[in-house]
């Protein structure tokens, strides 16, 4: 069964109801999963490039290495023509309206109970392995 976002993306009258940018940004969480989506945010669609905010350079580097897998997932979600590339920009987490408060931010950065590594929170074993390898290279 086709996903609703893919059907809407191909519908001729959809532009009057919802923009391609909203469709692409809305498909981000499904394309990367809950754990990565919690640390990143799709903000706009420039042409066919999806602009994504990340917390730091490590996330930027890791998403760059996962780009083709994410693009395949986005293609499944919204169709092949909408998103052709991903651009990751570093925007550190801020405290203020629409952002986590100091206590929430501290809790978010802490690893889950019983876990010694933040990568253990990534459900997909392949993505977890790639993340750990990229982190090791970045900190070496």
Describe the structure in your own words.
There is one protein chain. The chain starts with a helix and ends with a helix. Strand 1 and strand 2 (49-54) form a beta hairpin. Helix 3 crosses helix 6 (67-78). The chain has helices at residues 4-10, 14-17, 20-32, 34-39, 57-65, 67-78, 102-109, 125-139, and strands spanning 40-46, 49-54, 85-90. The protein is globular and about 45 Å long. The protein has one domain (4-139): DnaA, N-terminal domain (GMP Synthetase, Chain A, domain 3), CATH 3.30.300. It has a three-stranded mixed sheet. With 140 residues, the protein is of the alpha+beta class.
Alpha-carbon distance between the termini? 45 Å
Number of separate helices? 8
**Overall number of domains:** 1
Determine and state the CATH class: Alpha Beta
Low-pLDDT windows of residues: 100-111
Per CATH, what is the topology?
GMP Synthetase, Chain A, domain 3
Write out the CATH superfamily name. Answer: DnaA, N-terminal domain
Radius of gyration from the alpha-carbon trace, in angstroms: 16 Å
Order of helices and strands: HHHHEEHHEHH
Structural class: alpha+beta
Arrangement of strands in the largest sheet: 1-2-3
Summarize the biggest pleated sheet. Answer: 3 strands, mixed
Write down the overall geometry: globular
Helix content: 40-55%
Share of β-strand residues: 5-15%
Q: Could you give the count of β-strands?
A: 3
Mean pLDDT: 78
